[in-house]
């Protein structure tokens, strides 16, 4: 979906990331850019070395091969091609570990969302309101193609969107009721398996308004492709109004 020129859902022939809406996804995209610099440099460097090697060590050029055929070992070059890749791996590892730790970090959440995967729909629960005997629970099914409104997305729109507040630390608990599922929203940088009998946990901190679409990313049966996820981020006032309408 293009909301204010931002890409928040998958599109046909898409090759690049969706636009980031969380600090985690921003970190993933930035790490990708950094890695692409090293990958591009290594690719062209190896290409040049390979072409030069094929040229200078070809048997058809007698004047060159007569000199190069005696080259069987080079201590200097072996040291270089061992040390430089090691340094590159260290440079790549430092931001990678920093990003991994930031993804796993769970701060004191202001809101908890529980997601339960079922064949083939998602169930959601806002369990913070359990003490007030007004816990909010609902199921989220894909909207059939015949029921789609104009401008909505096929196989991505749901009948009950998950509404979450902006700039709020949110804890997400994910599990499954039957088989393996996976709760994945690319714009939010989240992809976590939903396993029966296991409770997985992640966190969200959404930076902007929007409707962010994802799908189940673990093959879970015949209707695996009909398990979309729709997250709508709103300001605190609208979130409270939505909560009051659900209680």
Overview of the structural elements:
The chain is α+β, with helices and mostly antiparallel strands and 247 residues long. The protein has 2 domains: 82 residues, no CATH class; 135 residues, Cupredoxins -  blue copper proteins (Immunoglobulin-like, Sandwich), CATH 2.60.40.420. Helix content is 33%, strand content 26%. It contains 4 helices and 12 strands; from the N terminus they run ββαααββββββββββα. A 5-stranded mixed β-sheet has the order 5-4-3-7-10, with no helix packed on it. The protein has a 5-stranded mixed β-sheet with strand order 6-12-11-8-9. The chain has a two-stranded antiparallel ribbon with strand order 1-2. Helix 1 packs antiparallel against helix 3. The longest helix has 34 residues. The model has no long low-confidence stretch (mean pLDDT 87).
């Amino acid at each position: 979906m293009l909301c204010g020129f931002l890409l928040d859902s998958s599109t046909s022939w898409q090759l690049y990331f969706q636009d980031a809406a969380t600090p985690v996804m921003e970190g993933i995209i930035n790490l990708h850019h950094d890695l692409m610099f090293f990958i591009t440099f290594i690719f062209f460097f190896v290409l040049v070395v390979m072409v030069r090697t094929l040229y200078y060590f070809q048997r058809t050029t007698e004047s060159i091969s007569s000199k190069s055929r005696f080259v069987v070992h080079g201590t200097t070059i072996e040291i270089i091609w061992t040390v430089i890749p090691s340094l590159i791996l260290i440079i790549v590892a430092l931001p990678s570990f920093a990003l991994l730790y930031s993804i796993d970090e769970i701060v004191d959440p202001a809101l908890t969302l529980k997601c339960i995967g079922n064949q083939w729909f998602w169930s959601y629960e806002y369990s913070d309101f359990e003490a007030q005997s007004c816990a909010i629970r609902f199921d989220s099914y894909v909207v059939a193609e015949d029921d789609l409104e104009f401008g909505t997305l096929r196989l991505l729109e749901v009948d009950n969107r998950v509404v979450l507040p902006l700039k709020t630390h949110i804890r997400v608990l994910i599990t499954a009721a039957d088989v393996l599922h996976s709760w994945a929203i690319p714009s939010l940088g989240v992809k976590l398996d939903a396993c029966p009998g296991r409770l997985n946990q992640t966190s969200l901190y959404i930076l902007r308004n929007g409707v962010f679409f994802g799908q189940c990313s673990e093959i879970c049966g015949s209707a695996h492709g009909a398990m979309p996820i729709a997250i709508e981020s709103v300001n605190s006032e609208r979130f409270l109004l939505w909560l009051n309408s659900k209680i």
